[in-house]
Write a structure and sequence with these properties.
9 strands, 11 helices, alpha+beta, L-fuculose-1-phosphate Aldolase, single chain
Length: about 300
Amino acid sequence: MGRFRGRHEAEPWDAPRWPDGFPEGVVDILYGRTELADEIDKVAEVAGYLWQKGWAERNGGNITVNITEYVDEGMMDMPLLDGPRKIGKRLPHLKGCWFYCKGTQKRMRDLAREPMENGSIIRVLDDCESYGIVADEPIVPTSELPSHLAVHDYLLAKGSPYRASLHTHPIELVALTHSKKWMEKDASTRMLWSMIPETKAFCPRGLGMVPYMLPSSVELAEATIKAIDDDYDVVMWEKHGVFAVDTDIMSAFDQVDVLNKAALIYIAARNMGFEPEGMTDGQMRQLSEVFGLPKI
């Protein structure tokens, strides 16, 4: 608790940020809400890891987490600080849902220290076409919000337990996409799985591949949803980055971290002057059978 909390490090989350009263137009939504604060703490921790690994240059990357399960009556009574704002499309499964979102032009290194000053909590309104900013400050979410929300709408429609989405730029995985060889369906997956058993164990659905498309575009969002629907939890965007979904933001980060570690092993072997053998198909099949993994 409190690893990336900046000024909160010496304070519990049930201590108010402004003991003498809130500044005008600001609330402290985490005050007294331990479970919600824990989720935001995970976001801050992951943001710190992304920056430390060099995966979040400038304002690169985004995080969106569905926090609806932590909403209480007091939150429901909070007025909007900003909005309504149009999403750009109707998302029927998100009616009344709440999300924590990284702010537009905000940096992960700053979010790691001050998550509520570099992101905001929003509520999707009853028309399913717009949202309002509820807390703590009227920080406009990332421009990629429509894409992230479209994925969350798909996940809820499917009955998925996944509540977190992560977009980041892992260096070695992005490097692989500059070769058409690794962009072929499941070519990267099988290579990465074969580098170390943990990759297949902890990323059992592998790595979906999406060819280059304009960042933040509707087409990229639709292609990402199609890849997730094809039974991938982590989707590679050619020459751009990855998009991962999981039950919480730490689990989404873990999948990307494990996959990138496998890429590092592959690149290390190539730098030593040889093509790594990797585990055999039989060895990987045994892993799937013994541990009950979803893909052979």
